[in-house]
Amino acid sequence: MSARTILVVGGGPAGVFAAIAAKRQDPAASVSILTREACEPYEKPPLSKAVLVGTVAPEDAPIAGPNRIAGHDVVLELRADCASIDRAARAVVLADGRRMAYDALVLATGALPREIPQLPIGTPRVHYLRTEGDARALKAAFHDARDLLVIGGGLIGLEVAASAATLGMKVTVLEVAPRVLARVCDERTSACVHAAHAAHGVDVRVSTAIAAVAQRTDGRIAVTASGEALAADLVVVGTGSKPDVALAAASGLAIDDAIVVDAQCRTSDPSIYAAGDCVRFPGREGLVRLENWIHAQDQGVVAGRNAAGAHECYGAVPSFWSEQYDLYLQGVGWPAADAARVHRPLDSRRLIVFDVKDGCLTYAMGINVQRDLAIARRLIERRIPVDAAALADPDQPLAPMLKGQTA
Question: Where are the domains of the chain?
Fold first, then answer.
C-alpha cells in the first residue's frame, strides 16, 4: 500500500497543528501545508500587542516552534493559493494551475475581517488587522500618527487601543453596543476593562454608531458618530470576522455560515476534514462556531490525526485570553444563558465570575486569576459538582473542589 498523501489548506494554528498531528499519527504519510502567505506560519495573538509596540516581530513566534515546519517533516508550500477542489479526482487546483492530489484534505482556511461599508478594506489611512503584513503596515503608520480612532470595542479593537495608548497616541474607541466586550463577558468584567482604558487616557464611547465618513483635505479621516464629528490620523476597524468558506462552498461542501463538520472534524465529504475559525461543529447544545487560538490548535490536532487514520472526537473545553495593559483576561468553558452567575469578590485588579448550571461549573472568566482559571478548567472538564456559595467565597480555595471538598 502506498503512503498516504495529506494536504492541509491554511497556515494558521489549525492548519499547522493539523499537519504536525497528521505526521505524528502516520509518520509514513506525505503531509503538506498550502498557505497563500509568503512566510513561515506565525502566531497571530502578538500582532495586536507586542508587534505593534515593537517588542517582537512576527517571525519571532513561529507556530511550529524553533524548528519551524520543516523540523516536523512537513512540506510548506508558500504563495499557494487554492483556487478549487476537484473532489471526484481528490485533487486541489492552485491558482497557478498546479494540481495536487490528496488522500485526505484538511481545510483550515480561518476567517476574514468583517468589513463595514463606510470603511472598506483599501481605504487610505484605514487598517484591518489579520495578517503579519497588516500588522507591519499599521506599526509603520503609528510612527507618524498622533491620534487613532478604533471602530469596535471587542478584543482586537481594545488590544490595538491599548497598544496605541502605550505608545502615547490619543485613542478613541467607538462601540455600537451598550458596553465593551459585550459578546464575551459580563457587565462587571466589561466595566473593569473600560475603566482600565479610561485610566490610560483612552476615550471609550459606547452605544455609538457611525453615521458618515469623509476624507478631509489634509488626509485625515473624519467620522460622524452620534451627531459628533471626530477626526483621526488613522482608523482601525475591529468589528469581528467571518469564516472563510469560499473554497469549501464552491466545492459543494455543506455550509451553515461556516463549514459544517461532525465530532471527528469530517465535512460532508468523508475525505475532507476542517478545523478552526472556519467551521461549525457539535457543541454541548448544537452546532457552534468559535474564534480563538486555543480552539484552533486543539481542533486542528483532532482533524489532523483523523485525516491520518485516527477516529477521535473533538471535545475540548474552549478558552480564550487577551492582554491589555496589566490586565490578563481569560475565559474557559461554555457560557449558558440560563446558568446562575456567581461573582467571587477579589481586589481591585482581579475578578472572577462563574456560571453554574445543574450543580456544575460550565464557564468561568476572570482578570489576573490565571491559577484559578486553570482549576476552573478542570472542574468543567470533569463536571465535578460545585457549591455556588463556596465559589462566591474568596476564603474558599478552588483546588479542594477538585476532590469535592470545601472548607
Answer: 5-112+243-307, 115-237, 326-403
Strand 75-77 versus strand 82-86 pairing type: unpaired
CATH superfamily label, 5-112+243-307: FAD/NAD(P)-binding domain (3.50.50.60)
CB atoms near residue 106 (< 10 Å): 31
**pLDDT tens per residue, range 93-146:** 999 999 999 999 999 999 999 999 999 999 999 999 999 999 999 999 999 999
- Residue 119, pLDDT score: 95
Q: What is the pLDDT of residues 275-293, one digit of tens each?
A: 999 999 998 778 999 988 9
Q: Under 8 Å CB-to-CB from 33, ≥6 apart: which residues?
A: 8, 10, 11, 15, 16, 19, 41, 69, 74, 75, 76, 77
**pLDDT, greater one: 77 or 2:** 77
Does residue 92 contact residue 9 with C-beta atoms inside 8 Å?
yes
Beta bridge partners of 320: 331
Question: How many CA atoms within 13 Å lie on the side-chain side of 111?
Answer: 26
Q: Grid cell 469623509 — which residue?
A: 214
Cβ atoms 217, 94 nearer than 8 A: no
**pLDDT tens digits along 150-171:** 999 999 999 999 999 999 999 9
CATH 3.30.390.30 applies to domain 326-403: yes
135 φ, ψ (degrees, to nearest 5) = -65, -40
Rounded mean pLDDT of 310-320?
92
Q: What is the distance between the alpha carbons of residues 368 and 380, in angstroms, rounded to a whole number?
A: 19
118 phi, psi to nearest 5 deg: -70, -20
> Which residue has 483635505 as its cell numbers?
217
Pairing mode, if any, of strands 147-151 and 170-174?
parallel
Which of 132, 139, 163, 130 has the alpha carbon at shortest distance from 59? 132
Topology at the third CATH level for domain 115-237: FAD/NAD(P)-binding domain (3.50.50)
Decide if 115-237 and 326-403 have a common fold. no
DSSP per-residue letters across 269-280: STTEEE-STTEE
* Measured distance CA(261)–CA(254) in Å, rounded: 8
Residue 313 DSSP SS3 = coil
